[in-house]
Model the fold of this input.
Amino acid sequence: MAKVYFSPARPAKWRYDASMPGKLERLLKEMGLSNYFSPKEWVAVKTHFGSEGAHRTVRPVFLRKVVEGLQSIGAKPFVTDTVRIKGLDYLEVANRNGVNHLSVGAPVVIADGLYGNDNILVRAGEILGEIAVASLIHDVPAMVVCSHVKGHINAGYAGAIKNVAMGGVSSSHRDCGWKCGRGAMHTLGEGRLLWDSEKCELCYQCAEICPLDAIVFNEEEALIWNGDTCWRCGRCARVCQSEAITLPGDDDRFMRSLAEAAKAVLDTFEPQKVIFINFLTEIQPECDCMPMADVPVMQDQGILISDDIVSIEQASVDILRNALPLPGSAATQADTGKEDDILFSLSRKPYRIQMEEANRLGLGSLIYDLVEL
Done:
């Protein structure tokens, strides 16, 4: 049975070791980083840099504690993510969100290059076939996955599996484009954008949010979509409040493809070379790649750490299911009750398929031993 170490968010005393940074230090010590990482070994600290306007990411103070923990055993960490928008812009966003060498104490780099196509095709499974794993994540010998747990329009629940699957895979490959990238998880078949001109209110949010300028409106106010450039990230469909834009998809397939992609990424590492830290803080209903962050839908719950990706995800959702909806949030607007699964009520996505499929693929166990520190 896998162990999942947990420290709750609320401090019991007015001492540093009762604070969340202090508790994270204790979790890292309890985990025993030297059991996984060696002196002088390069270790990727995988996180999400957020977006301009999306500030509820893993805070730099926590990333620094992870970096310092790795440095204390002689390892050489760096903080990384894959391209979500154009690479130089993404590094600027990271810096504005407080993630830089000065704040985290280690280099901050893009894992799949500034153009997002520095990757290696890896066999992924029956749904995805092959997937483009970011070359830096593919080549580095060890990794700490720092995930901001939150809701997600497609995944329903976004934690370590989503962070590894979509964050460890590039948006596009030099030869097979989006079909070998994370867009293959988002859409079915050709993944063609569908636009209903009669529903469209010409708010232009879809064009504004596109990271690749793949959507423009001509003089006749008709939407022009560049399917060759498009990454199929789905942001345009998410922000279309009139439901004029859709991308073909299937919830069951999407959840299973997340598990497939996570396995493809993790298979590039030797056993016992990856650990996972889930931050159950500022739990909002949106992905951190959106140009805004909604208010949290439930109170901060704490931090979990484990070497089993399935166990830490199962423990996280079990804790979240017992949380109460916060007044004034999307949870109360959705009339979520105290007995409801808040994240499911917001998205109606069968997110547990992620964990079940990851368990079936041998990534970890749904049964765990929760050790509270």
Q: What stands out?
A: DSSP finds 14 helices and 16 strands in the chain. The CA atoms of residues 52 and 96 lie 8 Å apart.
